[in-house]
Amino acid sequence: MDKEQIKGKVLDVAHEVMPGLNSDVDTEASLTDGYDVDSVSMIRMLVGIEKEFGVSYDDSELALYKYNNFDDVIESVEKKLS
Amino acid sequence: MANEKILEVHYPAITSWQWHATLFSILGDDDNAKRWIYSNYIQLRCYGINEIFTGNDMLFADIMPGSSSLQHCPYLITSLMTKQQIESYTSGVIDFIIKTIDLDGYVYGVFDEAKILCDVNVDYKFPHELFIYGYNIDKEIFYVGDFTFTDHYSYSTVSFADVERGYSVITASDDHMFKDDYKGTRGLYVILKNTNTRYYDLDINFIRDTLGEYLECKDTKNHLRMYRNRFNDTTFGVNVYDRLIETIEKQLSGDEPDYDIRALHIMYDHKVLMYERLKYLMGNDYLPMDQALLDEYLKVVDRCLTARNLLVRISITDEIDRVDRFGKYLNEAKEIEIKVLTKVRELLGSYEGQEFR
Questions:
Q1: What would the pLDDT profile of B321-345 be if each residue is shown by its tens digit?
Q2: What domains can be seen in chain A, in order of their start residue?
Q3: Residues B188 and B221 in one domain
Q4: How far is A41 from chain B, CA to nearest CA, in Å?
């Protein structure tokens, strides 16, 4: 799976978890300031990604502060898939 | 009277309970207030209560001075206004709140937030504290801080009409805030920021002694009887870790698991504040700079955050079989915290440069 496909699926999960998210997501924008992502929605998104990609996140990887933007989330999936 | 007035607020460093979020929203990063905050907010305690909305068993954990902080912090001037006073002084609660804000006063009190959240009439109440810091007369809205409107503490707006409705139905028995102050009536707090003069210096002796009480799990309420205290069933200090593990295992073992994260959240906030305290003490030469010690304490913060996030995860996935991990994370946090704070306490014992007013 290439990076664009991963990005597309991650954003699909994000939209599912946060229905208010606009369609034109800036993956470099801050998750908290730009999209009001909180710790609960972050964990919902990571659980959704686990199901979508068949990967798993350690408990310590669930912390919101570990991801500045959607690019960091996409990169975490890439690493788990490689 | 201006058309709009919004008093200064800062997103709070700790948000676990509404009273802490309110105090930190008002005081923000103020240097004078920090001296009081870092001298206090050390001891941790918990006890069992019946949750006010559901009646379910709940472990209530908090950092002392708990909800007494709004009245005891020297950098706030807090007045308790009864409903009778509010009605006598002004034409009603909306007028009262606007006039208070015009005088730079924040308003804090219990409102029925079911009236605020629901468009239709509901036959139940949801009494909860609302923090009001601004108004706009044209839009007929108040600017408020609360947990109720999103999954986390946030600043939002509520209409005058909803505030009026939410206020009018609350009785003395619904007003848990005034009840906790042992007042058999209901009302609102008016809170003024009072940070211009330095009233309270960092109290190194008090910090050292309270760290001792935290590490030795002493019953701190004996010398803090002016604060709201429960007089039985209270666990203090690092023993809160053990009670928390026991409670979570019980919460998740029933037929209908209870995913209440509030005790874990206050635990995490306690560590965040302790970490900031250590940085402050080192940055202001009360402790020698020791990055290794800070890094070690950061592990405590991380373990507590991981435990909290794990419960959020389990609430989404129902993976109850992960319950044994709480003991691992919290016991690790406890062990590291005892080591770090024991060293900090010893170092503070040899500090001799303090000058108290």
A1: 999 999 999 999 999 999 999 999 9
A2: 3-81 (1.10.1200.10)
A3: no
A4: 9
Contact A59 B329 (CB under 8 A): yes
User: Quick check: B219 and B49 in contact, CB under 8 A?
Assistant: no
Together in a domain, B240 and B128: no
Do B313 and A47 count as a contact with CB atoms less than 8 A apart?
A: yes
Query: Two tokens at A9?
Result: 């699926």
Q: CB–CB of B309 and A39 under 8 A?
A: yes
Lowest mean pLDDT among A73-77, B179-183, B237-241, B248-252: B179-183
Return d(Cα A18, Cα B182) in angstroms, integer.
Answer: 43
Question: Which of B193, B213, B237 delimits the end of a domain?
Answer: B193
Residue B152 touches partner A, C-beta closer than 8 Å: yes
**Which residues in chain A touch residue B152, judged by CB atoms under 8 angstroms apart?**
38-40
Find residue B78's DSSP bridge partners.
Answer: B191
Look at A43 and B313 and tell me if their CB atoms are within 8 Å: yes
B54-100 pLDDT per residue, tens: 778 889 999 998 888 998 899 999 999 999 999 999 999 999 999 99
Q: How many domains does chain B contain in total?
A: 2
**Of B193, B222, B256, which marks where a domain is finished?**
B193
Any idea how long chain A is?
A: 82
Q: Name the residue range of residue B168's domain.
A: 76-193
Full-model pTM: 0.92
ipTM given for this complex:
0.94
Residue A17 with chain B: CB contacts under 8 Å: none
